[in-house]
């Protein structure tokens, strides 16, 4: 297995790759404008996954660094999937020192329940207490 390097250095992020993946290949952010991706990166704790200096994965966490975090935009490019990189990326996120002892760590996924379950993520214990405003096609308008 090639040596995967994971970093929180925002200067190293390939924003063009992140935008292209999210806007064209993700199932959750089709059509997202680059300016929105840039603002999300600026206001999140970001994790880039790199092989030989080339970015192959990404994840970001929106958090107050004290009580709450939300994991979003997790991906590994298609040609590098099946090599354990998504597991290593999630492990790096969960091991980050600023994300310890949070009361709630949330995410939304349509197809990676098994991946996240191995790290203790479960359906909400009290779903009746959760509410949301959800606009799935906001970038199409």
Secondary-structure class: alpha+beta
CATH class bucket: Alpha Beta
Helix content: 25-40%
| Assembly state of the chains shown | single chain
CATH architectural group: 3-Layer(aba) Sandwich
Please outline the major beta sheet: 5 strands, mixed
State Rg. 15 Å
How many domains would you count in the coordinates? 1
Tell me the CATH superfamily: Gcn5-related N-acetyltransferase (GNAT)
The arrangement of helices and strands along the chain is EHHEEEHEH
* Order of strands across the main sheet: 1-2-3-4-5
CATH topology: Aminopeptidase
Distance between the termini: 42 Å
Q: Can you tell me the residue ranges where pLDDT is under 50 for at least 5 consecutive residues?
A: none
Shape: globular
Proportion of residues in extended strands: 15-25%
Q: Average pLDDT across residues?
A: 96
According to DSSP, the number of beta strands is 5
By DSSP (H or I, 4+ residues per run), the number of helices equals 4
InterPro entries: Acetyltransferase_Butenolide, Acyl_CoA_acyltransferase, GNAT_dom
Pfam families: Acetyltransf_7
GO molecular function: acyltransferase activity, transferring groups other than amino-acyl groups
Protein name: N-acetyltransferase
